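Below is our example:
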Amino acid sequence: MINRINFIAFLILISIIGCGGSDEQTKTAITIPEEVFEYEVPEQTQDGWQTATLADVSIDEKSIEDMMLSVSKGKYRYIDSIVIAKDGYLVHEGYFGGSTRDSLNDIRSVSKSIISTIVGLAVDAGHISSVEDKVMTLFPEYDLLQNWHERKSDISIRHLLTMSSGLACNDTQLVSPGGESTMFKSDDWLEHFLTLPSLREAGAEFAYCAGSVVGLAGILEKSTHMKGIDFADEFLFKPLNINNYNWLKTNGDLLHPNGLFINSRDMAKIGQVMMTGKWNDQVILSQEWITQATSHQFTDADLDSLGFLWWRHSTFDLDLFYAHGKGGKTIVVIPKLNIVIAIAASNDPSIALGLNWKIISDFILPALK
């Protein structure tokens, strides 16, 4: 069985009534031991992960046990799972609230980061010649004269990867013409995005925009001449032995920017590939792409830095990057420490990421010897 909370039974010593005709009772104190979590090494399955103990990779077992106990008591609200891989080994997995190793997490916007990685695979394979390729010329089937501005001819794949197209698309603004709630109601999401008005020069400013990722999904199919899900399966999922997943589609049958469902061990595999480019000594993704995808491009409103749909974070004074989805689905990669952390949660979006950072700072980083 995977990690679990082992509750020690209460030991109650009953007061003993004295002998010899005395009616005075001699009472002993009631001792209630604290709850304890007992660490277990993750089970070696057929999913491709090599497992090891926390001690094997110099992680303090007591700190991880304390983490699991604190999470189980609800200190971090609704956490579904925590998976840790270090030095290429899966060394911890813990599940809560009915979640299991096989549970598929609705990872929401982590899907955007994975689409970026799939685009990287297409670049590595030569299907896309350069991220500087222009976007609008790739879709002659659409009438792009609607809301046309000459600035739109400068929009490149890089601008979609960095959400800096300059189009009227901002998911944080309810009135934005390109906001996802509006796009999702349109007859063709890709056409809706491509025909948005231009507000500024491409590359001038970051604005969070799911439409950019719909554009990338369309480019992926145009350039590879394959359905996006088929390309993802052949070049990412199958090499990583990811077999149990589901990916929702747009109304144009493209990969949905928020649509991937995947289990926690497989989330960690994606992080491992983004850290090393390899899976079990097989090269999956080039270091050239990883360097670009995880390098600073823009700074968002929360002062986190965006690469190619992978985010950078500086709170811990470490060079780390991450993917994050609504509710607290997070893949964290810390190359300097050779560690990947996958957390799945179902928390309020306003606090979800902060709670995940707190778990990492309270327990995981201090556990590294």
Notes: The chain has a mean pLDDT of 91. DSSP finds ten helices and 17 strands in the chain. The first strand starts at residue 4 and ends at 6. Residues 349-367 form the longest helix (19 residues).
